[in-house]
Amino acid sequence: MQNLGIDVIFQGKNFQRLFEGLLVTAEIAFISIIIGSILGIIIGLSRTTKSKAILFINRIYLEAFRIIPTLVWLFIFYFGVTTALNINLSGEIVSIIVFSLWGAAEMGDIVRGALQSLPKHQIESGKALGLNYFQLYWYVLIPQAIRRMIPGTINLATRMIKTTSLVVLIGVIDVVKIGQQIIETSRFEFPTASFGVYGFIFFLYFIICYPLSQISKNLENKWNK
Amino acid sequence: MDKNNNPVLLEIQDVHKEFDDKEILKGINLSLHTGEVLVVLGPSGCGKSTLLRCLNGLETIQGGDIKFKDMSFTEKKANWQEIHEKIGMVFQNYELFPHMTVIENILLGPLKVQKRNKAEALAQAEQLLDRVGLLDRKDSYPRQLSGGQKQRIAIVRALCMNPEIILFDEVTASLDPEMVREVLEVILGLAKQGMTMVIVTHEMGFAQSVADRIIFMDEGKICEESEPNEFFTNPKTERAKHFLNIFQF
Amino acid sequence: MSIDWNFIVTSLPLYEKAAWLTLKLAFAGILLSLVIGLLCSIILYFKVKVIDIVVQAYIELSRNTPLLVQIFFLYFGLPKLGLKMSEGTCAIIGLAFLGGSYMAEAFRSGLEAVGKSQIESGISIGLSRIQLVRYVIIPQAFSVSMPSLSANCIFLLKETSILGAISIIDVTNLTKDLIGMYYRTFESLAMLVVVYLIMILPLSFILSWLERKVRYAEFGN
Known about the structure:
The structure holds 3 protein chains of 3 kinds.
Chain A: H1 14-46, H2 52-67, H3 70-85, H4 91-116, H5 120-128, H6 133-163, H7 175-185, H8 193-223
Chain B: E1 8-19, E2 22-33, E3 37-41, H1 48-54, E4 63-68, E5 71-72, H2 80-86, E6 87-90, H3 102-113, H4 118-131, H5 147-159, E7 165-169, H6 177-192, E8 196-200, H7 204-210, E9 213-218, E10 221-226, H8 228-233, H9 238-245
Parallel strand pairs in B: 3-8, 3-9, 6-7, 7-8
Antiparallel strand pairs in B: 1-2, 1-4, 4-5, 9-10
Helix pairs in contact in B: 3-4, 3-5, 5-6
Chain C: H1 5-45, H2 51-63, H3 67-77, H4 87-113, H5 116-124, H6 129-159, H7 171-182, H8 185-213
């Protein structure tokens, strides 16, 4: 069988460049996950208030990200916000903003779900022991809530990593873009490059995301005994 | 009433049953005659439910044999479809199919397994429903019914298959007390009509009035076997005495 | 800021066409993925030897890689092996490939939720294995799976937004082109959002209604 274009990956600096692209992907994902988590926790906690206004705003925020596809959000910020505010944001910055907002919305929902699923009598017995609001949260609720949040969080992180592949469509030089560049420049020497390169990128995403989802599954199984 | 001269429907020979290396049934021998009502009593864990479940093949046995008429359960060629048709079962948690109406629940077996004529099966189903007083509920869903109603329908469902034996596995244990009676009365009615039954129950008063024979089990074996009146007033074994004392206050 | 209504009106037919294309591709992808998902989950439930390992591998591979890369592989990579498909076909296959594994997960949890005693009840009235699956297991599994299945449907519809990468004129790609050509950024993006609302909200309502209809969830009680 003629060569599948896999060896083009090992030509020259291609391998190195692919990994640099991967780094860009990882960077965007990582920063977004962190910002998103912090914001998300705040949002999640805020959803336990009784204020209807806050709950309403939160609801709209979450639904906005649930109905409108992520790519569309990227376009909205990349084309829309930059035009409206007359500033020039790079694809990377836009990506980080959008992913952080998305992550925060989902994370907020995960946090809220975790807090709500805690048995009410935990709160009551804590109060009966004389714990104040802060102590109640710190010693009783938060440790248990964190446990319930972890599968959802890992799942969200995995999804975010996969979705970062979209940033190539707003011009960010990530691993997919570099792959495309390699295929372009190798058109004559390695006509079958697209098979090998895309296959390789497929494989790269897999080895990043699969371990994460396995960890999540294992933790879930361990804790649901 | 001595039904011991009636033909034997079910022959249980030296049955042994294990779960995870633990022996639950340690050699059960029993004959069930046509028209007989056997009530199996015993403390929890004695194996009575397990024995019942072996009688229609829900549990497999590791030793001995069970014969329905001349069909052996342990033969490779055992005709399980026929066995399930002829030996019906009613469960503690009714186990009606929640996505079907009452009448659909009842007709599933007759139409799809026995491939009977729809009009004929429907007529029988309605007649049976009427007998238990639930004909007006035939298009309801299980979730709309009370526990007692569901259990009576579960009995009708078993009856509509025209079984020769019906097994009852603690069928009133999940019911609120006021519904227990309506179900037990249906079973008593069946007994009067000569249905062959094996009943596992904790309702002692009921056991005494419905049974032809009481089988008392303990730790996987049949400990005592006698007429109901005799068993309740004058149990022979120590363990039976101890068991019956639990119910006296 | 003034809104160019003229632009909006003239672009409407384009959006309508793109929306229909989006819906058609999504619908085909959803249907196919439901079939794949159901088959896979039945294979896993009955632990069919050898094939179940293949199915598990498929599920892990498709769930842990982005749709964009999968579609690039199908559209740009496979032709090098001689397998060239139209972009529409690639889109549907890509959606079905990814969707199939999501649906399989949804069905699997539904199948596992059907109580053992329900199955015993079916056995006790003499149902054969196939009859059990058809009359007892699948209806109840479907009821439990429905929320996940409907979430997956919406997910797949949203994923069509990336199909522009292989030159399909879906609504998102159309918007990008229009912005590039006419610079009516605000109007274009606004229409895009509205189109998604129009496509997704009714679907979401229909699915919720279906969910309620099949919720026999008060099992046994």
